[in-house]
Amino acid sequence: MTKRRGWLLGLSLGNLLFLYLPIAVLAVFSFNASSMTAQWQGMTLHWYRVMAEDAALLTALQNSLLVALVSTAIATVLGVSAAVSLERSPFRGHRAIEGALLLPLVIPEVMMGVALLLFFVIVKVPLSLVTVTIAHTAFNLPLVLVIVRARLRRLDPRLEEAARDLGATPWQAFRRVTLPLLKPAIVGAVLMAFTVSLDDFVVTFFTAGPGATTLPLKVYSMIKTGVSPEINALSAVLVLISMALIAWSLMFQRTQRRMYPFGH
Amino acid sequence: MPDWLLAPTLLWMGVFFFAPLFLMLIISFASRGTYGGIEWTLSFANYRALADTLYLQIYFRSLVFATITTALCLLLGFPLAYHIARAPARWQGVWLILVMIPFWTNFLVRTYAWIFILRTEGLLNTVVMGLGLRQDPIEILYTDAAVLIGLVYGYLPFMVLPLYAAIERLDVSVVEAAWDLYASGWSVFWRVVLPLVKPGVIAGCLLVFIPSLGAFITPDLLGGARSMMVGNLIQHEYLVIRDWPFGSAVAFVLMGMVMLGVVGYLKLSGRKM
Known about the structure:
The complex is a heterodimer of chains A (264) and B (273). Chain A is an all-alpha fold. In chain A, 79% of the residues lie in helices and 0% in strands. Chain A has a single domain, classed as Orthogonal Bundle (MetI-like fold), CATH 1.10.3720. Chain A has helices at residues 2-29, 46-52, 55-88, 94-101, 103-106, 109-122, 129-154, 157-165, 170-199, 202-207, 215-225, 229-259. In chain A, helix 3 (55-88) crosses helix 11 and helix 9 runs antiparallel to helix 12 (229-259). Chain B is globular, with a radius of gyration of 23 Å. Helices cover 74% and strands 1% of the residues of chain B. A two-stranded antiparallel ribbon of chain B has the order 1-2. By secondary structure, chain B is mostly helical.
């Protein structure tokens, strides 16, 4: 038994090494004084300064945040309403509609990107940050829908019925009983959608016009131009941001569990 | 709450997802005009043109890459998922977070890491040649091997999470009963553990197979001219050749392959849509 455990632990640590070594290496070499080679030539913060002073990079970051914010907001409002509607008033063929709404989560990203490119060109909408935001909403909405729908299915319908029996209007019952219970799922969905939007390269690549550069588009063009320690520095920062997001979502889940012990 | 709550979603997805897809389907039957526009005479010409060896090779390569990636992820991910699921509750959380961090990290960054490591003047060659193990650099970047490394690296977390969920639900007493009845290690694995965690295995394989089949970033950044996958072919037809009807046909055949995978999954896991 212990021998088998040790063997499993070894393989698992090997897996972690495989997952983390490349990221760690990037972070370490972001402090390397040499600009061209992977040879260690002393410690410097130079590349972080270069990155902080890169105006194009900052614009790209602003664009990315704007697109992620707007597309997540629209997707959340529409996705939560759709999830509630599908749960409350099932109709003939609602399963087929639900299945179809999840299609953006399975079709290849490249296909979604070119379909939207084709559409915008044919209806003569010039490509810009607006078209990117529309495209991001189209994949964020199904994401929010799935997450919130899964949570709704596990909620006890009697809780809202009890509120109604005690004289609450349907809106009050939803606002004061169901919504607080849905909050963890909604926050989870928002974080997920926001991250997916911030990270998206493929769909953005096809739907962004000139001047509408997001952070991943900028990173891509930097990578295509060649290896530079500035990308390493940027990568290290992005990894730190994703770690912070996870820590935040975990802390949120923990406080939620203390505040709303029902329905978990 | 009445049904109108669903209307905005149906409208948004109808206009910005289903309409574009439908438009693309129609255009896949049109042809490219002399000056790059679209000639609206519908035929199966684009789909027939796909039967060319050149394109069949690209589809075949994508299938092979996706299959190898899935198999390698399963091989690497299973012991890890098993270890996490059998660890004490406190440790499970830590391990899961460790698997999720790369999953939440930008995909381009994770792909770039391999360029940094594998290129001719990269870290691997610097270390190997610095230690005097080789005189000339190992050329891995821009080969099929680099694409496979990138795909496995990119999609491994997709395999581990569903596997973990299935193994965690596995009843330990059943496995112990098999040991008590003198089953060998292999037969415990093949005849007890594997059948019980099959749903997780199937889900994990699908979650790795689908994005690998339609991969674009990995072959674009790590692959050479000879490791083009379907995703790259679509991009090439759209943005370089500018033959949108043919590019659309290429994409719909890919979508057909993906749907086949999804339907197969639903059949295997005995679920209905």
